[in-house]
UniProtKB/TrEMBL annotation:
One of its GO terms (molecular function) is sodium:proton antiporter activity. GO terms for biological process: regulation of pH. The keyword Transport applies. PANTHER family: NA(+)_H(+) ANTIPORTER NHAA, SODIUM ION/PROTON ANTIPORTER NHAA-RELATED. It comes from Frondihabitans australicus. The chain crosses the membrane at residues 48-68, 88-108, 120-140, 147-167, 173-193, 200-219, 225-240, 252-275, 281-304, 325-347, 359-379. It is a multi-pass membrane protein. Belongs to the NhaA Na(+)/H(+) (TC 2.A.33) antiporter family. This is Na(+)/H(+) antiporter NhaA. It is found in: Cell inner membrane; Cell membrane. One of its GO terms (cellular component) is plasma membrane.
Length: 393
């Protein structure tokens, strides 16, 4: 499973899973695949009524959000976001990368009943974006990856907040209160992980896992999207055991969880309608992901870089040049995983619109992948030329 720690392998597997799901859904096997996705695996005794598809998006995907939360905490405590000075420019760029796609989406869908889907193109798939950079941009300056990582982590934080605020309906306050108590219990149990070893340490790990599952259950029953429970658990665990946890989980998340989610989300039948009959949702997402992200991140990041320019000439080399910023902005248009989840949440009452939104996320992300791959390759060649040392005569 070690190969799935590689950003390149993870991105390739994620793309392959999505393509396979889309192809199988449009073959004669499509009806059987749809039936499996909608088959219910209920646990009525404890009030869990979930289809296979929802077990994937609400259950399995929680592991991905746990990893995201720990990575976010790591960057805030020890990494590239551990000071206002480090975080301010990618933070402003991330805000621009959320606002601009939302505005583009709102303009395209103005006057329709689909305006509630504005969060869909605001997300960046951190694993996929870093994977494309790793595949096509080896030996590029480290500042590009650092900036992309910081921007994508902050983008994920915004996505988490959007899911928590805008996709929570009819909350059950009793279960939400129990969920908060469960998070507090995880926090308390997490303190034991660094103090106990051997059999007692194993018992502490088991206790944290059980409490995390209980937290997920209470949050799900509360009406808040269940992945928020995983985020809360990731943020309250002490950093050292949390880092060990994601080191153990990452191959499984990259190699199993994300491909299964991508396969399930992308396994939709292509609507047999003409281009002119596609809903505004389709066009809004297809345009907003590549174009909105490009405009928002480039403009906001460029302005922030000017305003908060480091006065120390020795550190100015860490500031992105315009071409590098444009490339990062294009990588930010790869929405994929979180965009697919937001699409399901935004239009869960309209299967047809969910299908169109899914196709739009795949197509918009594909455009961003192709264009960013070209830009990264051009940047790599440009950097190689500048770095070349003339041979002595």
């Amino acid at each position: 499973m070690g190969i799935f720690r590689s950003e390149r392998a993870s991105a390739a597997l994620l793309l392959a899973a999505a393509i396979l799901g889309l192809v199988l859904a449009n073959l004669p096997t499509g009806h059987a695949l749809e039936a499996v996705k909608h088959h219910h695996l209920d646990l009525p005794a404890i009030g869990l009524n979930l289809s296979v598809g929802h077990w994937v998006s609400d259950g399995l995907l929680a592991l991905f959000f746990f990893v995201v939360a720990v990575e976010l905490k790591h960057e805030l405590v020890k990494g590239e976001l551990n000071s206002v000075k480090k975080a301010i420019v990618p933070g402003i760029a991330a805000i621009g990368g959320v606002i601009a796609p939302a505005v583009v989406y709102a303009i395209v869908t103005a006057g329709t009943r689909y305006t509630g889907g504005w969060p869909i193109p605001t997300a960046t798939d951190i694993a996929f974006a870093l994977g494309i950079l790793a595949v096509f941009g080896s030996h590029l300056p480290g500042r590009i990856r650092v900036f992309l990582l910081a921007l994508a982590v902050l983008d994920d934080l915004v996505a988490i907040l959007i899911i928590a605020i805008f996709f929570t309906h009819g909350s059950n306050l009793a279960f939400l209160g129990l969920g908060i108590l469960a998070v507090a219990a995880v926090f308390a149990a997490g303190r034991l992980l660094g103090r106990w070893s051997g059999l007692a340490g194993a018992a502490a790990v088991a206790l944290v896992v059980v409490l995390a599952v209980v937290c997920w259950y209470f949050v799900y029953r509360s009406g808040v999207h269940a992945t928020i429970a995983a985020v809360a658990v990731g943020l309250v665990l002490p950093l050292k055991p949390a880092d060990r946890a994601i080191h153990a989980l990452q191959p499984f998340v990259n190699g199993v969880v994300l491909p299964i989610f991508a396969f399930a989300a992308a396994s939709i039948a292509v609507p047999s309608v003409g281009i002119g009959q596609l809903s505004p949702v389709f066009w809004a997402i297809v345009i907003a992901l590549p174009v909105g992200k490009l405009i928002g991140i480039t403009i906001a990041g460029g302005i922030a870089s000017r305003i908060f320019r480091d006065p120390d000439p020795a550190r100015r080399g860490q500031t992105l040049r315009l071409g590098e910023l444009v490339t990062v902005a294009m990588l930010g248009g790869i929405g994929f995983t979180v965009s697919l989840l937001m699409n399901e949440l935004a239009f869960k009452k309209s299967a047809e619109i969910v299908d169109e939104g899914t196709l739009a996320v795949l197509l918009g992300s594909a455009v961003s992948i192709v264009v960013s791959a070209v830009l990264v390759s051009m940047l790599k060649r440009s950097h190689a030329r500048r770095s070349a040392v003339p041979l002595p005569r």
